[in-house]
Amino acid sequence: MPACACGGRTPEAQTHGWVRVEGMHFFAAQVGVHAHEHGRDQSIEVDVGFWLPTAQAAQSDTLGATLDWSAVRGAIDAVLRRRHYGLIETLCEALAAHLLESFTSERLQLRVCKPGCLSDGRASVAVERWAQKKPACP
């Protein structure tokens, strides 16, 4: 995450860290503005990182002190199945809002990729988003 506007490292930076799950593949998304993209499921890949109290989780060594990644995957799947999204940017915003609302992390990093979406069948389009519930600095 970019340096805090208030300068220096905060005490939180010494106890928190990014915990990521990468390469989640879903085949239940409907994304696109073209007629051939409507009414058919498409592949979407999602990487997400949550800013968490990693020192606390390490000390307790229990799932209750961190995130249950199967619950994160379920939350993403629910948003994907909710409706058709015209733009991958719209889907990314919907995912960011839902994940911040559903889980305890104050910040997240999100990457949503639509593989093989261009006419050559190989190129991918991705959107990356950093989001937070509240400013990192008062």
Summarize the structure.
The protein has 138 residues and is an alpha+beta fold. Helix content is 30%, strand content 29%.
Helix and strand composition category: alpha+beta
Spatial ordering of strands, largest sheet: 1-2-3-4
The helix/strand series, from N terminus to C terminus, equals HEEHHHEE
Q: Report the biggest beta sheet as strand number plus sense, adding barrel if it closes.
A: 4 strands, antiparallel
Range of strand content: 25-35%
Q: Low-confidence spans: pLDDT under 50, at least 5 residues?
A: none
Please give the count of helices.
4
Taken from the alpha-carbon principal axes, the silhouette is: elongated
Instruction: Give the terminus-to-terminus CA distance.
Output: 17 Å
What is the share of helical residues?
A: 25-40%
User: What integer value in Å does the Rg equal?
Assistant: 17 Å
The mean pLDDT is 84
Number of strands: 4
